[in-house]
Each structure stands twice: as C-alpha cells, then as structure tokens.
Amino acid sequence: MRGSLTVLLVAQDPEVAARSRRLLDEGLMAYRLETVESWEAARTWLFRHHPHLVLVGGEALPRTLPRQLRSSVQDARRPPVVVVDLGPGVERARRAYTLGAADYIPLAEESPQALQEGWSALERLLRQGGVIPPKG
Question: Which of 48, 89, 96, 105 is least surrounded by Cβ atoms within 10 Å, i.e. has the fewest?
Fold first, then answer.
C-alpha cells in the first residue's frame, strides 16, 4: 500500500515487524512504509529522509533511547516518534515516554477496544502535528 504518509518502522524481530505492518494496514488508509532493524539504522535513515511518523517496536529500543532520541530529533521539524508496545521492551518504552523523549501509544492486540484506543490516540497525535488534516 502506498500513499502520502511515510512511516518509518524500527523493529528487530520479524514477527514484530509483520504484526506492525498488519496493524498499520488496519489503522491507516494509505501509507508508504520503510523498515529498519535498529535505532542506529533509523538515525541514519532519518538524517536523509523526513518521514511523517516513526514507530519503534519495544524490542528495538536501546537502553539509551531517551538520550539518543533527544539528541537526534531536537529539530522542530521532527516527526512524531511513537513507541509501539507490541511485546518485549515495554519497560524501556514506558521510560522513554515518561522522560518525554517519545510518545507512548500501546497498540497491543489484547482486545479490539485496546487496539481502537491506540489507533485513536495515534490519529489525534497525527492531527495535532498537521500530518493528517483535522476532521470536519
């Protein structure tokens, strides 16, 4: 699926990447997806490209993520960096969020309601950032 919304997915585990793609297919109408396996690769990619959204799978979070995020995305044009809670690495994800380095949106597949709440939160974030137009 291709579209005007560019999403960078950072996921080491192929299963997490596949689950993330499936969730994106369910939640976003049209997007272009780029996938990298490490935060270091993501930083290199971000230096050359300007995605609308960065999703980081919990298992791909380095222990120093909060500091790395702050140093690499302080640019005012930075895209929303959303830590996606899909399994391992949840504690690091929560720590990154509580330190203000990223937005933390649980897109867990535990229940349809939890998944819908996660997509609603992501949609609000994208609308606030001007990535997708406001409703109305």
Answer: 48
Domains held by the chain: number: 1
pLDDT bucket at 125, cuts 50 / 70 / 90: low
Q: What's the pTM value of the predicted model, to 2 decimals? A: 0.57
Neighbour count for residue 117 (Cβ, 10 Å): 15
Q: Please give the full DSSP string across 9-60, using - where no structure is assigned.
A: EE-SSHHHHHHHHHHHHHH-SSEEEEEESSHHHHHHHHHH---SEEEEEGGG
- Domain range for 104 is 5-128
Q: Using CA atoms, how far apart are residues 115 and 136, in angstroms rounded to an integer?
A: 24
**What is the SS3 assignment for 71?**
helix
